[in-house]
Amino acid sequence: MSSRHTYRRLYVWEMPVRVYHWLNALSICVLGVTGFLIGKPFTVSLAQEASGQYWFGTVRFLHFTAGYVFLFNMLVRTYWGFVGNRFAAWDKFIPMTRKAWQDIVEVLRIDILQTRGTGRIPLGHNRLAGLIYFVTFLIFMFQGLTGFALYGPMSHSVLGKMAAWVVPLMGGELVVRQWHHAMLWFYVLFTVVHVYLVFYHDYVEGRGTTSSMVGGWKFEREDLLED
Hints:
The protein is mainly alpha-helical. The protein has a single domain, classed as Up-down Bundle (Fumarate Reductase Cytochrome B subunit), CATH 1.20.950. Helix content is 63%, strand content 4%. It has 9 helices and 2 strands. The chain has helices at 15-39, 55-83, 98-113, 127-151, 158-162, 166-170, 173-182, 184-205, 209-215; strands at residues 7-11, 217-221. The radius of gyration is 21 Å and the shape is elongated. It starts with 6 loop residues before the first strand and ends in a 6-residue tail after the last strand.
């Protein structure tokens, strides 16, 4: 006979965190598709003259616009990491203790070997997810710097001029462009793994992991509530 537990609904993800998540997902999708087309454009044959076709200009405009959205969205999330609730705080992303690293190993066993967890499951991000998001945040910064460094010479953007030092530091515009394009595939891999693990943990934990990024609420057994 299975034991019965009482669950309590807890507000985990605040509105700014949820807006950041979905705005980030949208901007990454736009950046990924347009960035791929910029790196490897294809020919579009229309009845009108080439001077009347501005499809590639539109692609570049969407890429640059999404880049600005991506940057300022990331800055807002950085700020919220200091003023938001305990689930949004930055200390959840950087493993500073031995216990945190032990939790990372356990989550790896659950995700890869699909073993049963022995410890308590965090209500917010688990330690492995937090570490991955921190590394992803660093790659976000790299993409932002290299992107605006490439954008600077073709615009009057202040941010582009501020990032001009990246080009000589990395050895030229071609190198910057290659690295910027290569990181596109990190986002593709991250998206696939992220979506899989969200649904997997939702199934294993049964606490509303997927829906929590829409409404902000998760469910936790009362006998396991965090202090």
